[in-house]
């Protein structure tokens, strides 16, 4: 029986409006809906008066202007970036220019080439302040801890708001969809380890950058781990039939998915196969990649 992921897709919002969604927490959604962003990028504002902004989103002056209108009379002291995809970090330059607030993140964009099937890599972003796993920054009424969660990208951070037991999960864990893992910057072994890392935490709620809150975090993360194990079992089942290329397997494994998403599904399948290759369970007829023919080892 297929793993039942408890997807959460109901979401109430209005484009261009900074809205209170929980005590001390506001969100404004950018008008950049797509197959990878759901309704668009949710930019979060933590605190009141002197605030932190998480993931200012795409390079959209309309979105940043609406955010600033909602923050009239307040001071942006921190701009926090979960990772450097173009739906998350380019807006930081516009927000910094308007407010003078410094940026915080794990580092520049990595070596990923999955840019053709997702929102693309922001190769211009370099944080003013590097935050590594466990680093902390704070403001009035909020203390935020960086949680390094590589997998979707190598520089992916989640941000834990300690006082509220909230985790801002970026694209690592979302309620509306699973994450695309696109090698080489996306790494399946890292992604699985980062999911397990969250199970050791006591966060009460997750707020992803796309979609609504996840209110039963551990059940959701466990379902994601089970889902990836199921995908691996599906790959094994296909290879038991004989050697196969990724694009031969994808329409079978992802039969329930819109065919327009097959390129992204192929990248995630490659990530799974690379993980299996590194652990000696599969082999390829050439250097491992999208064009290889794979077999069980």
Automatic annotation (TrEMBL):
Q: GO MF terms on file? A: hydrolase activity
Keywords, in A-Z order: Hydrolase
What organism, scientifically named, is this protein from?
Oleomonas cavernae
Q: Which Gene3D superfamilies match?
A: Ribonuclease Z/Hydroxyacylglutathione hydrolase-like, Winged helix-like DNA-binding domain superfamily/Winged helix DNA-binding domain
Pfam entry (one):
Lactamase_B
Q: Which CDD domains match?
A: metallo-hydrolase-like_MBL-fold (cd16278)
Q: Where is the Metallo-beta-lactamase domain?
A: 39-210
User: Which InterPro entries does the protein's record reference?
Assistant: LACTB2_WH (IPR041516), Metallo-B-lactamas (IPR001279), RibonucZ/Hydroxyglut_hydro (IPR036866), Sec-metab_biosynth-thioest (IPR050662), WH-like_DNA-bd_sf (IPR036388)
Q: What SMART domains does UniProt report for this protein, alphabetically?
A: Lactamase_B (SM00849)
State the superkingdom.
Bacteria
Cross-referenced SUPFAM superfamilies: Metallo-hydrolase/oxidoreductase (SSF56281)
Stated name of the protein:
MBL fold metallo-hydrolase
